[in-house]
Batch of 4 targets.
Target 1
Amino acid sequence: MAGGSDFSVLVCGGQEEKTNVKHDQCHILNGDPTDWPTSGGVLQVPRVGAASLVTDNRTSLWVTGGFNNDKLALETTEFVKLQDSTLESSYGPNLPNPDGLKYHCLEKTGSASAIVIGGQDKSNRSQSLTWSVDIATMAWKLTGSLNTNKSRHACGVLRDESEQGKLIVVAAGGVTEKGFLTSTVELLILRDDNNAADKIDPVWRLGPNLPTQVSNAASATTSGQQKLFVIGGKQDSSSVFELQCDLLDCFWKTMTVHGWTSPTANSLALSLPPTPEFWQGDIGWCSYVDGDRGSK
């Protein structure tokens, strides 16, 4: 998103912990963690438990599903754009599940493609179906089912250097259809070939289990898409796990993180460039994990 400083962060929706009030507001942070300008009611509806991605031109945020005051999963989506220094939203295409989705994953798999993985529908039960979407045409395609129904899971997309043109979609941990935490991990192989319609092998394969059962964890991949980090979450909220893959030969490593002051669930994570200027020193509002040293 454009802004008047070196970086900007857009935050939309969510729920107040003490009052359970659901929000439709969006906020922009422009370089100063003490200053959160509020743009007012931007989202078409309040959303909690939604999944989102930044469009390829980085001018809008695509927000999908979630729930609002009735706690039922939403099938609607919307785009939030910065237009003449003002945030505006408009409805996008509905999700392919007519019963809506919440606590699902939405991951980019190319410059104009993405995949929706699992989540809960209006029955509040975890689902197994996955869909791909052509972002240019907003056409959905059913792309197979997980072996285990998942919601509140961690996801990411890794790039396999050993065999060019291969991407690995990861769905890790989460909550099963019966409401139990799980450590299962599933992998889907994609061809990274300019978003061909047949790029997806619709067979989800079981990968190495997480070291522990975990849900509501944050996840982030390194900038080169070589490692996936699963951070915090319920059950083991003070741990950070790292996944590396050589195609389907994957393994987890438990990282030592210094400066982790309190257990965390339902947090967000993102990959940062090496030693960014704005990250020097202790700014007191978040921590980071170095992929080699596990340090703050």
Target 2
Amino acid sequence: MPLSTCPVWSSVPNKLLDLIQQNELEQRLKSSLFIVRWYHYFYMILRGGRRSSDPIVRRYARKMRDLLDCYINIQQQETDERVLWLVDATKSHWHLQWLHASGLFDIRVIHLVKDPRAYVHSMDKAYANAKRNQPEATRSAFRLAYRWLSANLAILILHRSCWTRESRRFIRYDDLSVNYEETIRGICAWLGTQFDSERAARFRIMTNHAIGGNRMRRESRPVQIDTEWASKLDKSRSLFVWMVTWPLAKFFGFEWRTELLESRE
């Protein structure tokens, strides 16, 4: 559905919708907002927890604040309920760091992590049946494994340099899918909000104004663990991905043995 026909987003001024200004920000980074270069880790370690006076960062954060304030006001008028917390699922670690560095937001961070082999399978399964030679398949697996490794390491560094233990949480996809209601209940208690079991059960059919996201949110089935990768990801690729990512994967509690996953179903 075009934004112009959405009752919420059509009410947001165009100047706020055009807030990201990726060209300006990417020129500063000399890379994409969603890519981590090796030298970025030094920046995050040295300046991760500091407030920033950078005009580009401050301008980005102010525009994001104005956009979120506008969105919250529209939502409160639509539902006649007070919005206590707003979920921002942006996948850029720079976005997270800049909002923190601005000092304009009260942020709680949830680091949601997927098994690296499940991630590679999910991102690459469109090409699984394609006729590719082994070098191409290996390069693809390495590229995706490295993306998982670099992105999750960046978020882990930001977690520890910017937020106290009380302000951050780590959740595995498998734990969320197997213990969905218990996990959501714990998050609500952590945020100081009341858990609503009815809303938790019918979250898929509630009004959703998200511009993008996983298409699974439009399905009607309940949350459930997906171990498709364990049987469909080629064993050699699975081993290769594990070898690339295992130090961080083990840190997050993932195991090489897939039978541990199958026992949770």
Target 3
Amino acid sequence: MHFSKKKILKTEIEKLFQLGLIRLEEKEKIEDYYHFDEENHFPLFSIFSALFFSFGLLILIAFNWENIPKLSRVLILFSFLLFSQWGIVYFKNKIYQNFFVVLNAFVLLGNLALISQMYHLGENASLLLISTAWVILFLFFALKNNLVFLESYFLAALGFLMAFPNDFYHSFLCFILLLFLFEKNNPLSFLRIFNFLFLCFYIVKSPCLLNFDFNAHFFNAFLFFLSYLSFLFLIWNIKNYKTCAYFSVSLVFLIFALESNGNILKDFGALPQFLFFLPFLICLFYQKIFWGVLGLVFTLKEMGLEEFFLENNEVILPGKLFYSILTLFWGIYLMKVGRKFLSIFVFFSLIFIRYVDLLGDYFGASCLFFIFAFVLFYFAKRK
């Protein structure tokens, strides 16, 4: 249980005891069950304590590094590694265990860097970080400590970003997928949005996954896959990612309503385009009409359907109009499913975008506002 929730629960238990609703023995049993004695201090203090200690240790060793014999270097770092491993196994209290978990990651990083230096393996910092992340990941499976996984994920993400664009480490996908499995635990929930963005980034930039060069339109391609994956997560009803998915779709629609330079899928072959259609066709088959229609319309737009009827220089205006209409109905849907604040954000943003960036002349723009007003009034009456 998250430490903040434990604090609330502990307060409530104390109130029940003071009111005489539970006996002292029952109160103590409940406190023992939730291990309140282990969470008396703010857990993050021990983590940051380990960070300060680790950096201090690195600076101290670096100060005398040239004067320390190679054998002594190995013995010092290896002894600290064993010490940190012993602390992780020996201490059951989370405060102490978290301290040694963070210390272990830094010491392990230092050991791998030392080995690389001694055996002239090159100065590839990104590979060093990825390698350390994999070693720590195996430690996570042994300890089942969420902080260990967070460390490995952070190091892997840092190594992945440092290597890009010269190298592309496909092994980072394993960390992305593992976080989808483990994020149900409270300490990992704040990483959902980052993991979601990393997955989209991986799909767009992977040199072999789609075998298509998105460099010329990277931002639009990233936005398309962000919304497409959000559709899939919402269709599959992945509850932990619903808020992230709803917000992602809203953001993409608003951006495309402001600047529609999409048609990401127009250069794909017939088979890949059909595969993009397939989830929404399945939705229609299972009578999920809203998602089926929305997905098909969105995918058809990104295939450049309007270019069959318009010249290239005339495509941008209908694209903005298309996404403005789509955003309007998306805002209505958000209100219907109880996402009130997000729906309000969408409507206010759409008003601002279409007022600042008028479509056509003043008369046409005013007509668009009138039409949107009538549509919203119609749905207001239907409730």
Target 4
Amino acid sequence: MKKIIAYIFVLLIVAIITIGSTYAFFTASITEAPFTSQTHQLEVIYTGDTAISGGLDLVRDKNGGHHREVSIGLSENSVGAAANLYIHVESITSTLATEALTWEIYKKVNNQEELVKTGTFVDCGAIDAAKSKCTAGKRIYMITGLELTTTPQSFVVYIWLNGEKAGNEVIGATFKGYIGAETENVSGVLQ
């Protein structure tokens, strides 16, 4: 008889534990703290007069040719980025794709122009590829890997036909293009 009472007592304890845990499981409420996140995106501000077209006269220096000013920077909450500035050749007469058609890019610092790079329209092509004579659709990369910040950086690009390197063969020749920028996201390393 004592064994039967012990079995009933154990059975009753197991039943109470089972019912209690089942009740607790189904009535428990789980609360989570709200999850908020702010994502950032790449947002570049690129401004300026970028089109290059019109007549090219034989001149002695950059002041007689075309010049365009562009500015590039990041918006306030943008992720980090680097930029490449280039001249995109839309059309060019083959007689102009020489060392006579010259370009220079200057960075504006405190209203002064500092020479960054100079080149000609002989060398066109992708950044890390072999360069070739400029034709329609090709690019001249003037600056590569420019680290962008929220403070805009201004550049002045000069394009002129150097009269000391060309003659009558360029009369009637035409060029049309624009100054462009391409950017890529730059990831940092957390420390």
